[in-house]
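Re: Re: token formats

Sure, here are both.
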Amino acid sequence: MLAKIHSFAPSTQLAILLGSIYFYIGIFAPFFPLWLTARGLSPGEVGLVLAAPIVVRVAANPLILSFASQRQAVDEAMLWCAIASLAGFVGLVFCHSFWPLLIVTGLTFVFQGSMMPLSDVMILNQVAKNASLHYGSIRSWGSVAVLAGMLIAGALAGVLPSEAIIWMLVLSAIAQALICTALLSKASGHTKHLASKAPPRDMKRLDLVLVVIVAAALVQAEAETERELDHRALRTLTQAMLDCYHALAGGAFPADPQEQLAAATTAVFRSWYADKAITYR
């Protein structure tokens, strides 16, 4: 069956690849915390483990993406990330306490977290070479896969024990690795190099953005849900975001709701003409 994938239309191949990458999210996002709780972790420990993927992606994604782009090896990077992710999810099966779960989850998402941006690079490369392909149509299959993962995992979680959740993730990772192997292992020269562009002027303080992302992850880790965050944590996080906005926009965040709405609307329309949006289209 997998051998026949190469006979499918390019759009179908990319949709299948994208679906295999995004399917796990439908299992991981709603049900991984339940599995962690079943493993005996406290709400605070669950929050820290859930924050680990956010933090490691901030550091790992740019490095892996840059490495793959500079060596024109997006295919190979995706394939090895898929294999490493599978090893990580299998490793989680054997973790039964907080520190092993935290470390292995973080290491797993060094690679699993890079699969999505790498797939975006691949799709954009293919769209640039084939006018019949449409980024939006292909990308929408990722959302379909997430929904399918939620529905399937939800149905199974109602009848199977909590331990089945990790095995669902392992099976999802196996499917991802097999499909990546079938589509990418023999695809020499499948993608072309994308020249890196300098950051736009309004992002020259990217360090602040990264600090806010990490801060948000760490604050989230203090509570299992937003309702458990106290006023001090929320105030600290809000102030960090306001400081970030001030540094990037060169002015204070507007206090008038009407002004906020007008600015948000204008930003949406401006984004349509951004270089990134034009490249996607």
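Second one below.
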Amino acid sequence: MSGVQVESYDDSEGDDLFEDVGENSSSIRAIEAEELGSSNRNADIMDTAIRNEELANLVKLFDEFTVEGWEHIYQSPDLDLYRLPLEGTDVYKYRSRGIMQASAAKCFMLNLDLLYRKEWDPYCMHLEVVTNEEGHADLEYIHWQVKFPFPMSHRDYTFGRKSGYTKDGTYVVFCRSCPIISCREKKGVIRVDTYGCHMAYRPCPEAADSAEYVMDYYDDIRGSIPKRIINWASKKVVPDFMKKMHKAFENYEAFLERRGFSFEDYLLQCKERAATLD
């Protein structure tokens, strides 16, 4: 990990911030409704094909982890986190690298397993594969609804997801937002249409049961959210999500057994739906 000294954050700060928001809950909901209105943006699935080259470029981040010009906002023994404003927007792109206390294969499987995500992620309200790209088993289209803390409206996402792997045991899961006609927007739920989460895992040389990972992530949740909450959340959301994933690893094989799968059989199924990147 980088030796740069990064200011730590206080978890309790978020509670105070959300208390501040709560005092103006009705006004925030009114502002969101006024700004967003009825967007009626749904259309056929657009040409959002995720190319194998994009997955291969993510793998290169392991050896070419470029963060020049990025702000280093969080550091722990298992995680370095950076952010960079997306040009022409108020949205940040986040880049991180770190260590997972699970094999690269288990990280890959857990990332793809939507049923298990609904069990271990308390913010996941709905998550399903809507359709697959015809002729491309490695590309799926997904609808995801996420619980947001009161007084904010819940969000939902529609996105394409492509997975891949290499012969040396590196795995990639690449997600990017796209509209899906069958997933109509719901009243009171804000559709997020700028989203990407790109993760790669490879075996950690120091420990067989650990994996190195790199991630690029961006997410325009829209609506009027105070900037200080965004700044606080940017230092908290990714680290907290990684902690939840670490906890989820502990129970994953038992979850597979309850569904009648061995670890090896389910890994094989995941790889059959993934692209080969060599």
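The chain has a mean pLDDT of 83. The CA atoms of residues 64 and 199 lie 15 Å apart.
- S.
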